[in-house]
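Reading a protein record of the kind used here takes only a little practice. Think of the row as the fold of the chain written in a discrete alphabet. With that in mind, consider the following protein and its fold in token form:
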Amino acid sequence: MSYTIDVYRRELPACTSFRDFALYVTFFPQLVAGPIERSVHLLPQTQRPRIMTAEGIEAGMFLCLWGLFKKVVVADNAATIANAIFADPSAHSGSALLLGALAFTAQIYGDFSGYSDIARGLAKIMGFELMINFKLPYFAVSPSDFWRRWHVSLSSWLRDYLYIPLGGNRGGRWATDRNLMLTMTLGGLWHGAAWNFVIWGVYHGLLLILYRAVGSLPGPRLPTAVWWADLLRVAVMFPLTVVGWIIFRVGSLADLGAFASGIGVPSAADHELQWAALGAVWLPVLLMQLAQLARNDLLCALRLPALLRGILYGLLLAATVALSTGESNEFIYFQF
């Protein structure tokens, strides 16, 4: 679709080589679940010689290894917790429901960003560059910042091919709010024809509208580019993101109601082992992301000395083998 639209808009010349066009359309690393590559970015790469370098191959192998770790260790282990609780939310309450929500929050990030990293890594090894699809989304400070960090290829596609053609923010506040809501609702429907996806899209549309409205009110403001102010913003935005993932994951509106009514009720079980397991698999991701955030570099691990890089790669590989659940769990986004 992006190729057809870009050619129609005269933003991209029509491809004259069927071989190059076929490679662009069927490029296997990202074909099933993204990143959603634009023709203006990927198609020119099929039309010129690729250069494979030792640095690119190592970067690609690291991305594949890191992505595999996030899928096998983080997502699959978190899934065992999330699936048990989301299977029957009415049978749980309080901290158990919170545990399930946080487990799915870890699962969907590890699963989807893991796939994107593997796709980017495979492409790098072959001399292609795919766009970065995840930019530390759980450090987002606002809904708009979240969508600049989460599934960037989809959110930017919706922005450029839906939100802006609808009028974007050019028609005043009401028109802008309408365009945001339409875009996010259709973004929810993109995931499937189910009410929870519609509600999830509407929910994120409301968050975008609410933050815009609050931001336009007169009054004092938190400072920008100050760590403690950003920490406060993240502390507000992250729970809102988790609520969104509850809506996204539930199997029915009845389950959503069970979550809403039960999460404030004290839990009869402590689930200490599950909390510990979730914390253990998430800790390496958190440490890596803190380093990436501090250095503003998603590939900061490649800047380590060779010996430390080797140790890191060995630990990731050993953990992936040792902490695998032993079950075959397909990627979440294979269903969309």
In short: The chain has a mean pLDDT of 91. The two ends are 17 Å apart (CA to CA). The first helix runs from residue 2 to 8. Residues 71 and 111 are 5 Å apart (CA to CA).
